[in-house]
Amino acid sequence: MNNAELVKLMTFKRDGENRTPLFVLKINSEFILGVYQGSISKYDILIKYRQNIDNKWSRIRTPKHIHWAVDILIKMHSEPQKTKEFLEFLLEMWKNTYPIMSEEQRKKTLEINYLIDSNKNAFEEYSELGKKGEYNIKFLILLAKLLMIQEKTNLETAYMFKNLIQALKSGKDIFKIVSIATHR
User: What separation, in Å, do the N-terminal and C-terminal C-alpha atoms of the chain show?
Assistant: First the structure.
């Protein structure tokens, strides 16, 4: 599938207008990520994805923190030590993620090759975790990075995603994790 086909596949209508992605990334044969102009701030991003299920692309979905957290809980049940290491990696990623403050910074931050190249080692190191749960590691890492960028761009002092990672890593009870993941 070429880039024009991916863009077409990830374009949707909202309020009668086509919403075309700023960029699209086919992660593998299972997932396509699209990043759009958001509505909260000038540099806000909106993240959407499609999943290939039984050789058919799902409708365009908006990822929620709760989906991500449930997948991590499944991975934690199967591989607790490796999942905790993965969560520690994500906490480091959080520390090194900054809000988008200019168009130049947005182009650099959301550059597909940059996002992939800066995480290649992690894709390999945690690939076995991708065999557990719904989401593969490449999808989870790229999704987490985009969610971090989105959260920090909308409110530089935001910390909900970080709190969710910490709650998962420390083994908080399911009610605490769900509460953090679904907070509005």
Answer: 36
